[in-house]
C-alpha cells in the first residue's frame, strides 16, 4: 500500500528551520554559467552580470551604510552593484530563482553564513522562533536571499521589512526576487514600485535589476496535460517514495500542519499521486496549497493527478483576487510538475 502524505506529521526542531534554509534540490547545482539567457532578451544577460557582481562583492566587507537611495539598473549597469541589496524584478519563469540560487552558491563566504529561503519560509520562521530570536539567529549571516518576496499581506510585509532592516543594520547583505503579475507585464516597474513603497525603510538598500522574458516552463508547451483517471492514479502509485492521497483528505491534513513543516512533510518522497483533485474556492485552503506547491517544486517532485486539470485548481474569483500572484505561481509550477508526472507514467 503506498504511503500517504496525509498520514505524516513531521516533528521538526526549530533549529532545522534555519539549517534547512539553503537552495532546494531543484536549485542545488545551478550556477550563473548554467543560466540560459535568451539572446532576444538583453535584460537577462545583464541580470546575470549584475547578480554575479553582487555575489562577488558579498565577501569584500563593503558596508551597506555607504550606499545611496533605491536605484533601477538597466543593461550594462552591473559594475556598481556592490551595495547591500539587490532586487530581481520580473515575471513568472524568467529564471529569477535560478539567478538567486546561483548568487547564493557563488558568494565567497562559508555555507553556514549565508541563507536562502522563500518569503513564506521567513515569515514562518519568525512565527516559530519569535521576532527577536529570529533576528539573533540570522544576524551572524553575511548574506540572506529571499525568494518570492510577497506584497499581498500587509502584516507579513511589515514583519519581513522590519526583520530585513534589522539584519541590514548588522551588515547582512540582502538579495530578493518577486513577480510582476501576468496581466501587468510590460508596465515597466510595477513590481519594483510596489516593492519600494511597501518596504519603505529598506528601499534605500536595494538596487533593482529587471529580468524580462517569457515563462520558460511553458514556452511552446500546452497549458496542462489532461488528468488521468483516478484508477490509473492509484494503479501507477508504485515504487520507493511514491505517495497516494485523496485530494480532500490531503487538504484536510494540511490544515493541521504548520506551513513551516510542509517541506519535511515531503521527506523521502519521489513522486506524488493525487486522486479526485477539484477546484478550490476557499482562500485558506488555496493558500495552503500554494505553500505545498512551492515545496513540491523546490524538491522537483513529479505529480500525477486525477480530477480537474491542475491549471483549474483555483476559481476565477481567487485568480482575480488579492493573492492572485501566489495562485498564478502555484499553477505555473504545478503544471510543470504534472508534465513531469505524465512523462513518468509514459516511461513505465
From TrEMBL:
NCBIfam families: ZapE. Keywords: ATP-binding, Cell cycle, Cell division, Nucleotide-binding. One of its GO terms (molecular function) is ATP binding. It comes from the Bacteria. It holds the Pfam family AFG1_ATPase. This is Cell division protein ZapE. One of its GO terms (cellular component) is cytoplasm. PANTHER family: AFG1-LIKE ATPASE, ATPASE N2B. The keyword Hydrolase does not apply. It comes from Jiangella aurantiaca. One of its GO terms (biological process) is cell division.
Amino acid at each position: 500500500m503506498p504511503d500517504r502524505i496525509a498520514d505524516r506529521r513531521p516533528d521538526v526542531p526549530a533549529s532545522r528551520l534555519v539549517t534547512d534554509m539553503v537552495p532546494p534540490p531543484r536549485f542545488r547545482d545551478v550556477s550563473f554559467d548554467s543560466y540560459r539567457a535568451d539572446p532576444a532578451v538583453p535584460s537577462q544577460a545583464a541580470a546575470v552580470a549584475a547578480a554575479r557582481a553582487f555575489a562577488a562583492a558579498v565577501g569584500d566587507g563593503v558596508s551597506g551604510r555607504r550606499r545611496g537611495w533605491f536605484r533601477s539598473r538597466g543593461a550594462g549597469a552591473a559594475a556598481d552593484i556592490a551595495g547591500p541589496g539587490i532586487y530581481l524584478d520580473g515575471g513568472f519563469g524568467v529564471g529569477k530563482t535560478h539567478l538567486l540560487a546561483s548568487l547564493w552558491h557563488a558568494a565567497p563566504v562559508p555555507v553556514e553564513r549565508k541563507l536562502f529561503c522563500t518569503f513564506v519560509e521567513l515569515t514562518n520562521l519568525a512565527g516559530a522562533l519569535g521576532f527577536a530570536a529570529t533576528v539573533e539567529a540570522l544576524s551572524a549571516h553575511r548574506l540572506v536571499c529571499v525568494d518570492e518576496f510577497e506584497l499581498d499581506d500587509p502584516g507579513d510585509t511589515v514583519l519581513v521589512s522590519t526583520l530585513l532592516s534589522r539584519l541590514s543594520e548588522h551588515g547582512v547583505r540582502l538579495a530578493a526576487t518577486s513577480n510582476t503579475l501576468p496581466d501587468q507585464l510590460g508596465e515597466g516597474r510595477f513590481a519594483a514600485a510596489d516593492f519600494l513603497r511597501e518596504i519603505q525603510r529598506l528601499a534605500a538598500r536595494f538596487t533593482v535589476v529587471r529580468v524580462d522574458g517569457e515563462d520558460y516552463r511553458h514556452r511552446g508547451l500546452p497549458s496542462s496535460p489532461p488528468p488521468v483517471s483516478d484508477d490509473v492514479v492509484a494503479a501507477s502509485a508504485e515504487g520507493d517514495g511514491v505517495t497516494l492521497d485523496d485530494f480532500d483528505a490531503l487538504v484536510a491534513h494540511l490544515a493541521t500542519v504548520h506551513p513551516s513543516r510542509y517541506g519535511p512533510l515531503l521527506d523521502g518522497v519521489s513522486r506524488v499521486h493525487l486522486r479526485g483533485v477539484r477546484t478550490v474556492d476557499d482562500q485558506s485552503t488555496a493558500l495552503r496549497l500554494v505553500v505545498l506547491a512551492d515545496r513540491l517544486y523546490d524538491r522537483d517532485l513529479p505529480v500525477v493527478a486525477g480530477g480537474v486539470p491542475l491549471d483549474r485548481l483555483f476559481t476565477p474569483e481567487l485568480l482575480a483576487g488579492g493573492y492572485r500572484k501566489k495562485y498564478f505561481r502555484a499553477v505555473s509550477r504545478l503544471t510543470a510538475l504534472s508534465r513531469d508526472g505524465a512523462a513518468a507514467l509514459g516511461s513505465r
